[in-house]
Amino acid sequence: MSLRHGVLRGAISLGSARMAMSLLNAASIIILARILSPDDFGIVAIAMAVVSVIAAVTEASLHQSLVQCDEPTQDHIDTVWTMSCLRAGLIFTVIALAAWPLSLVYGDERLGAVFLVAGVGGAFMEFYNPLLTMATREMRFGPFAAFQIGQKAAGLGLAIGLALALGNFWGIIIGNALGAVFASLASYLIIPYRPSFTLSRVSEIWGFSGWMSLHQLCETINWRFDQLALGVAVSKVELGQYSVADSVAVIPTRELSFPLRNALFPGFAQISAQPAKLREAFLEAQSGVALVTAPAAVGLALLAYPTVDLLLGARWITIVPLLQLLAITYAFDTFITVIRPLGMAMGATKLLFLRQLLGLFVRIPLIIGGLALGGLVGAAAGRALSSLVNCLISFMLAKQLVSVGVWEQVRAHGMTLTCLLAMSAAVIAAQTALPPAIANQPLFQIPALMPIGALTYAGSAFGLWHVTGRRSGPVKELLRISMRVSDLAVFRHLRRT
After folding, report:
1. Contact 313, 33 (CB under 8 A)
2. What's this protein's family per the entry (predicted)?
3. Each residue of 317-352: pLDDT tens digit?
């Protein structure tokens, strides 16, 4: 199987899974936001942020080490499983010991029990069958996609059911914990695996995973720092509003970019010893991921008001400016999504860690300063600015890894940036021209404006590709894929008739 075909197949498999997860996540947010209060979401946000950071302290990218390893054996697989067992126990122990002190820090005695239950989910989150990861090494992504969908569906289904029954934050906390446990156990049914306790390959696994654990810790703090800080500085209601805005803002981009990122890692690993080929693949992947995912984030920012009003209800309308800023934050992140799989494939885990550490030093003062000057909106603005700075840091890292200049990377994103500007101008102009009967009704405003934005973006991309000589790149690749899908659909229709 060719690299391009393998990555494409993986992206489709994982992309379908993430799309299903995205729909499930969106549906759960809509339902839960109408059942629970902002205070409930504030409690959940603190618990999830703390558990994520504690889990990240022990994160070692154990499963990913099997992909990067040249010739993984059964001993490597069993060592990863054994280390995952030890990690799960460590996560829960640390959370159990920290539960009461942290409840005092956040001034809410309910958090002690909440941390304990959430810790169960945190311990089982990565305790899944390592053979699922081995399948991705062979460019077979179906088993891992099935696990991801099952994990998300179990957690969200239980959370909604328990929220309806209990009427408070315990529905989400217990549902997420049980979902993680059930999904982890089910992963051993997807691909049969009989584990054995061994640490015989721990030095080889840790050789890759050591720096990745530090990278993951910094990445998690980067992602969760604002909620950790807000949990101390603002009320649970305000934190709940911020958390819901963040949960909605992340859906379009993270759910679209993650499958591409996960599929690119084994693909890059296969050509890591061919610098010229890797450089070309990186540039094409980086520009392609942004071209596909960035418009979803910007579109959400443009339609934030009718989206919140329609999906969450009038009591959440105050989160609109937060949603807009956070959606732009995730749009910036799409331009550098490919850096992580590139660094992992090249074994440059130390550089990935240093990138996250530098980004953390930028993010913390910007968020704290923004919070002090402008409250929740200021904190969101600080986070958006820090993501923009992180783009520059990541471009500089890519220059060191594959010798692609910063300006060359910016130019590779030129089509995406131009199309985003055209889309934004078209949607804003259409908003101002809408008759009052439609402008005041989100149920009509969204279907009226969304096609305008989508057609403007797609038309701009095709037009730019045409006038610049129809060069190879993401647009040509997307057109080729579309033609194949169309031909396959016609062929199947003819066979049925």
Report:
1. yes
2. Belongs to the polysaccharide synthase family.
3. 999 999 999 999 999 999 988 888 888 888 787 888
Cβ contact 205:63 at 8 Å: no
Cβ atoms of 360 and 214 within 8 Å: the answer is no
How high does pLDDT run on average in the chain? 82
CA distance 224 to 231: 11
Higher-pLDDT residue of 71 and 481 is 71
The pLDDT value recorded for residue 289 is: 85
pTM of the model: 0.77
What's 126's DSSP letter?
T
308: helix, strand or coil: helix
Side chain identity at residue 173, one-letter code: I
Indicate the domain borders of the chain: 3-412, 420-485
Cβ-contact 45, 240 below 8 angstroms: yes
pLDDT digits (tens, 9 = 90+) for 165-195: 999 999 999 998 998 898 888 888 888 888 8
Can you tell me the distance from the alpha carbon of 435 to that of 261, in angstroms, rounded to the nearest whole number?
Answer: 42
How far apart, in Å, are the Cα atoms of 264 and each of 76, 211, 281, 340? 22, 20, 10, 10
Which of the 8 DSSP states describes residue 474? Answer: H
End-to-end Cα, the chain, rounded Å: 32
Could you give the angle at the alpha carbon of 162 between the alpha carbons of 159 and 167, nearest 5°?
Answer: 110
